[in-house]
């Protein structure tokens, strides 16, 4: 009679070495390795036995499909537990998120050319609105992204005042929030005059340095302005700095050049 001698006379219908009375899985297929309860081994604890598990080393707690492999709801080849955008397909190189199209990246990268500020002002010109509206549309399309706004000034005037002004210029954010973008998806920073892109010695260079940079990044990743420029001071730090730092020194005026005495005319000979 099958299975009697090996288990001291106890029946073992599936011949897995566990007596039927103790076997919680009495119909295990022949040859399948079992644990002490007679059930097929499940090394990764995902409730799919190893002999049926195509991904037997799935990390603990990860949801799996019927084959024992991690769920990938959007079918992009990036499992949900590693996918920053599990409901929208994207490449593994972008953490499973869709990549912003080239033409849309161009709109963001070139925005600073269309959104400039007059000297000593932070009010947006109406000519800035069409480009800001395009960026609002991009954020609405790519809901997994946030936007970094970095404000800059030229070098004219007091350092602390320029830093404060750069934060105000970064408030182009307010316009986009008014168009329905959630506040936690737009972060504004001010860098004052510390990150010029042109020579401040010329009026043309100063105009280019009065700018705002716009960069999209995956929500939860490092703010792209900080990656590009480093940490920016907070408003609180700015106010404290304004109290403790002396104003920018104005260059000393040069003494007027001394006039040379007029040369004496030689007498006219008659």
From TrEMBL:
Compositionally biased region (Low complexity): 242-254
Keywords linked to the UniProt accession: Cell outer membrane, Membrane, Plasmid, Signal
Subcellular location field: Cell outer membrane
InterPro entries: Bact_OuterMem_StrucFunc, OMP_bac, OmpA-like, OmpA-like_sf, Thrombospondin_3-like_rpt, TSP_type-3_rpt
Domain OmpA-like per the UniProt entry, residue ranges: 104-220
Region described as Disordered: spans on this chain: 1-30, 238-270
Main location: membrane
Taxonomic superkingdom: Bacteria
Signal peptide feature range: none
Entry-linked Pfam families: OmpA, TSP_3
UniProt name for this protein: OmpA family protein
Organism: Hymenobacter monticola
């Amino acid at each position: 009679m099958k299975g009697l001698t090996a288990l001291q006379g106890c029946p073992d219908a599936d011949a897995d070495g566990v007596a039927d009375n103790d076997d919680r899985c009495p119909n295990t297929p022949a040859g399948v390795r079992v644990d002490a309860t007679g059930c097929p081994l499940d090394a990764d604890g995902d409730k799919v036995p190893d002999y049926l598990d195509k991904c037997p080393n799935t990390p603990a707690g990860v949801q799996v499909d019927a084959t024992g492999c991690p769920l990938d709801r959007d079918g992009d080849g990036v499992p949900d537990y590693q996918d920053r955008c599990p409901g929208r397909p994207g490449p593994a190189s972008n953490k499973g998120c869709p990549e912003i199209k080239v033409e849309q990246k161009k709109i963001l990268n070139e925005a600073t050319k269309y959104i400039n500020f007059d000297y000593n002002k932070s009010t947006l010109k109406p000519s800035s609105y069409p480009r800001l509206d395009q960026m609002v549309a991009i954020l609405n399309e790519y809901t997994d992204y946030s936007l970094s706004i970095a404000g800059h000034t030229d070098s004219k005037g007091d350092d602390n005042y320029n830093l404060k002004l750069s934060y105000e210029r970064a408030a182009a954010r307010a316009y986009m929030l008014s168009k329905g973008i959630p506040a936690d998806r737009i972060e504004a920073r001010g860098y004052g005059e510390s990150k010029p892109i042109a020579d401040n010695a010329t009026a043309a260079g100063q105009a280019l340095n009065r700018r705002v940079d716009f960069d999209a990044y995956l929500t939860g990743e490092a703010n792209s302005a900080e990656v590009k420029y480093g940490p920016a001071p907070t408003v609180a730090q700015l106010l404290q700095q304004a109290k403790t730092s002396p104003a920018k020194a104005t260059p000393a005026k040069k003494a007027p050049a001394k006039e040379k005495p007029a040369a004496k005319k030689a007498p006219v000979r008659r």
